[in-house]
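Worked example

This section walks through a single chain of length 114. The input is the sequence exactly as stored; nothing has been trimmed or padded.
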Amino acid sequence: MTPIQPALDGTIPTPKTTAAARRAEDYDTWLAEVWPVYAAIAATDRTWTFAEIADEHRLPEPPDSHMWGRLATRLKEDGYTRTAGWTTSPRPSVHHSGVRTWRGTAAARREQAA
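Given that input, the structure is written out below as tokens.
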């Protein structure tokens, strides 16, 4: 159990839910929340990682961590993204392991991705 420091007036503060602590109930609910964010990022000229965008936009974690790969595959298959290279993950939980970097496609920038 994590100790909670009371405020100076003696009240106990309400615990904050961080983005990392938020977890979607099911795949469809999670996808409905994260898809528009990644589609919008794909419409830019930016190179990015999935974790980087999730942290910036405070997106919830999927019900299963393997669903990040499923999202990456769907965005690529639907013509929104393409692989750009490799970098190390910014998340300490994966110990800076190698992750793909992504870029949006010309179709995504024209909003013609299928």
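What to look for: Residues 27-109 form a domain with the Arc Repressor Mutant, subunit A fold (CATH 1.10.10.10).
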